[in-house]
């Protein structure tokens, strides 16, 4: 199998790193005790136009790692409201999952974007939203601009160890007065000698307490808001970085979410990603990948919730009959499965067009919008059918009811997605003159 898989992979990259072979070995050597709880038929993946047998192999390998190294500990990590990011990321990095579409010269597999999305979809089999989100920050939110526009030295310093799992990355965009309104950020990076001196604060930073570096968006000039920002790699052990607090949340419990302050933090100007003043543009490009990640990574979670709900209601009896036999229940589950397949088709189409170099801003925004709303709809409807059990911490549906609420807020709120869609449809009203 290994020889066959590597032979297939040569169609896509000129040189395959040793980590690709590790993925194959992981799949074949996983213990019997790590039986999958996934509801995925991996053979069906080959029927999708953007996926091949190789995608299925990678997903199966990742599923083995999830079931052995992550899912058995999720309950404890959720209770502790923290998970060991360095430990988990190192295992993922050693297996090659943190850089499937990143350049081979920095430790990635050099495969195309569809492989990153295959990994993202499989992360939905983790039994909570927080760990998948934290991994997604590392792979599809904090590092794409660095991989695409960073200097060779910068990529060796920050990208290579992030792909290897030796460093935990975060993304620093949101601020107390600028969440979805990215153009309004106030953090500054002012040149002094060969350095940037950074002052400001960032909020809602996933991986912020455990992170080693942050991809920071800051104002580096006084020009127009869309052309005065830059992305800078900032080591979080730098003097003047203050990890102010861990933010308590209603969901995503095991993900550390931090408020950070930067007080006269000095970093070399060579830590700039790409060109100065291009940070807003680079971040908008990163947002497209983030929103596609959001759309695809929820698919398996929602499928699992729907299947578990069908199983539970098929066994639970009330008023002399099986709950699932009520037409309102099985019809509702059929409706939600239909909506899930529509979301899948939308996301896969957007991924395919993105790989062709098309502008998928509208479709990515639609996918993000639909993913957030469908997550709320599925978890709320299914929780109702679990009755009192659904209101406990003992079942998966209640966890995703909490965790999934973030999807309509983080990475661009629903209202921002709607505004973007309206802009592309030509129906967004012009800004009112002051």
Fold and architecture overview:
- It contains 15 helices and nine strands.
- By secondary structure, the protein is α+β, with helices and mostly antiparallel strands.
- The strands form three sheets. Strands 2-3-7-6 form a four-stranded antiparallel β-sheet, covered by helices on one side. A three-stranded mixed β-sheet has the order 1-4-5.
- β2 (188-192) and β3 form a beta hairpin.
- α12 runs antiparallel to α13 (361-385) and α13 runs antiparallel to α14.
- It is globular, with a radius of gyration of 22 Å.
- The model is unreliable at 1-35 (pLDDT under 50).
Taken as a percent bin, the fraction of beta residues is 5-15%
Q: What does the main sheet amount to? A: 4 strands, antiparallel
CA radius of gyration is 22 Å
Number of strands: 9
> How do the helices and strands follow one another from N- to C-terminus?
HHHHHHHHHEEEEEEEHHEEHHHH
Kindly state the percentage of residues in helix.
40-55%
The main sheet orders its strands as: 2-3-7-6
- Rounded mean pLDDT is 91
Question: Whole-Å distance between the termini?
Answer: 66 Å
Q: What is the structural class?
A: alpha+beta
Number of helices: 15
Low-confidence stretches: 1-35
| General form | globular
List the helices and strands and how they pair.
Layout: H1 2-9, H2 18-29, H3 53-70, H4 74-80, H5 85-95, H6 113-123, H7 129-141, H8 144-149, H9 152-164, E1 169-172, E2 188-192, E3 195-206, E4 213-219, E5 229-235, E6 241-246, E7 257-268, H10 279-297, H11 299-315, E8 317-318, E9 321-322, H12 327-355, H13 361-385, H14 396-403, H15 414-425
Parallel strand pairs: 1-4
Antiparallel strand pairs: 2-3, 3-7, 4-5, 6-7, 8-9
